[in-house]
Amino acid sequence: MPHAVPSGRVGFLLARAGGRAIRNLNRALEPFGLRSRHYTVLSASAEQGGLSQRELGEVLGVDPSAVVSLVDDLERAGLVRRDSHPDDRRTRVVVVTEAGRSTLDTTRELARGVDDELLAGLSEDERRTLERLLLRLAS
Amino acid sequence: MPHAVPSGRVGFLLARAGGRAIRNLNRALEPFGLRSRHYTVLSASAEQGGLSQRELGEVLGVDPSAVVSLVDDLERAGLVRRDSHPDDRRTRVVVVTEAGRSTLDTTRELARGVDDELLAGLSEDERRTLERLLLRLAS
DNA sequence: TATTGTTATACTCTATAACTATA
DNA sequence: TATAGTTATAGAGTATAACAATA
User: Which residue intervals define the domain HTH marR-type in the entry (chains A, B) (predicted)?
Assistant: First the structure.
């Protein structure tokens, strides 16, 4: 049975592949008690150092109210801290702890593995092309 | 603020773009009382003519129990029928009605429009490349 | 015994509205 | 007035298990 690809094909293909990526990463992260969205929050906090929760939501395309509960989970697990912002007492800056950094090192490998599996049929060149095109989609 | 793209980058980009595509299509379909998953079921049923519900689920990557309620909705709206299978009395074949075909003609244009908007930044060549690469991702 | 469809259920994800404390 | 964070909530998506009818 061939795959059915409806018109509006690309949106469908993106959604299906994205869903698969998320499910696979969730499965890989299960032993850590984390899910893919925790990983993206942890990763962005580490790589962009000290984002506010609002910034995290913006950058990751996640609703602010969802960021709160994701950071709650990560804080409870000791992987991030909420620090106060020097200039604005409303704002809370999310900082990755040492434990968080260590967890991130491990889970990053898992995320790479999930990507590798998904992209198994593509050459290195094709992977770069795909990534470049995805980065240029309308945001 | 640049976009944060964690390692496991491609999976993240796919999920974000796919989510956007689904949300946009849901919004476009709202006047029809349909959502994107109804559209994919309707589209696959029309283009592959008379699939069983199990086949629909397989082809679209949707859980069988979800197919039931999607087909329920479409049947209630008069867009598909459940016919009996000639050789297997367990199986129910999903057939698009005339009304369904007409709705599909209209909604297909909406789906194309959503794709167009998402792909606005890419040339025709780049769009074809993207689609071709997406079709080759691990299923 | 295995499969198709179905129902029930639970959990995650997404989105919105309302509130507080600050700006 | 507006913004950052928070809480509560509801709807959609996803997944699993159990069951009836049929193979």
Answer: 7-139
